[in-house]
Amino acid sequence: MLIESVPNFSEGRRPSVVDELAAAVSGTPGAHLLDRTSDASHNRSVLTIAGEADAVTAALEATIAVAIRAIDMERHTGEHPRIGAVDVIPFVPLGATSMDDAVGLARSFGRRIAGRFDLPVYLYARAATRPDRVRLADVRRGGYEGLRDEIATNGREPDFGPARTHPRAGAVAVGARPFLIAWNINLESPDVELAKRIARRVRESGGGLAAVQANGFMIEELGCAQVSMNLLDFATTPMWRVWDEVRVLAAEDGVGLRESELIGLAPLAAFLDVADHAGASPDATVETRFAAAAAALQLRDPDPLMALELRLEAARTA
Fold first, then answer.
1. Catalytic one among 42, 76, 80, 166?
2. CA gap 266, 309 in Å, rounded
């Protein structure tokens, strides 16, 4: 059962801790660490792991052990919403693996880590057993501090584990979902209120684009505001459509787009769709078509290995 997992950790400012998390994956036989991304303003890191289910879950358990030891949520600060040291663990089916397989894996894994680490675990997305926990934002309501204070109240108790947050690691959301593209667009402006206004207009919940979640942040190290997004279904709303919409909305305030940045990886098909929209020849090489997509999106540090399939192929043949 081939699976991908993209765990998010509440640590993006101490490279030594992120190194430990990555080493926990690399040291697990059969688990392929395809990508690692850290953001100091969000104080968050994302690892992309793929392989057979047993190898991936073993690697995840190893990272949880590191996170519990190295991250203290009582001292954590950052722009990004979070409820725990290991904030969220999604399972994404690859190859012939079905979504039902991923749901079963998420639920069994959630139960197992709740018992092993004494962690409260919330099931979300396709693995949710309650309608009010399908959306990750609903699970994260109030952030770590809000959950810590409300976890024992009716309706906020976890699906597995104790009805109290772990003294250091908080809680964790475990789910199953289709491929999600985590993607940010940086504005040529430090106006964070503009980024938030654009985010409200572009996201589905605000009447914007289908299958798009968005928020606005200030990225201090870049000196600019950012529209940070999750694209839940690139076939419904492709990357080029989101880029064009954000560009138009920013232009209403006389602001241009500086660049975009990918967090983790994206399916090759998502990039090829952008290349088609940009007018790249369908007969060109994959590398040429990727370059056309990257130019259209002003993608920072473009590399064809940002495509999941190409990265996994490279990892398995290395």
1. 80
2. 9
For the entire predicted model, the pTM comes to: 0.80
Of the candidates 231, 227, 229, 192, the one whose C-alpha atom is nearest the C-alpha of residue 210 is 231
CATH number at residue 150: 3.30.990.10
Catalytic site includes residue 80 = yes
Q: Each residue of 38-65: pLDDT tens digit?
A: 989 889 999 999 999 999 999 999 999 9
What tens digit of pLDDT does each residue of 146-182 get? 999 999 998 999 999 999 999 999 999 999 998 899 9
pLDDT confidence of residue 312: 87
Q: Are residues 169 and 247 both part of a single domain?
A: no
H or E element: which one contains 216? strand 212-219
Domain of 16 in residue numbering reads as 2-176
The reply to whether 79 and 157 lie within a common domain is yes
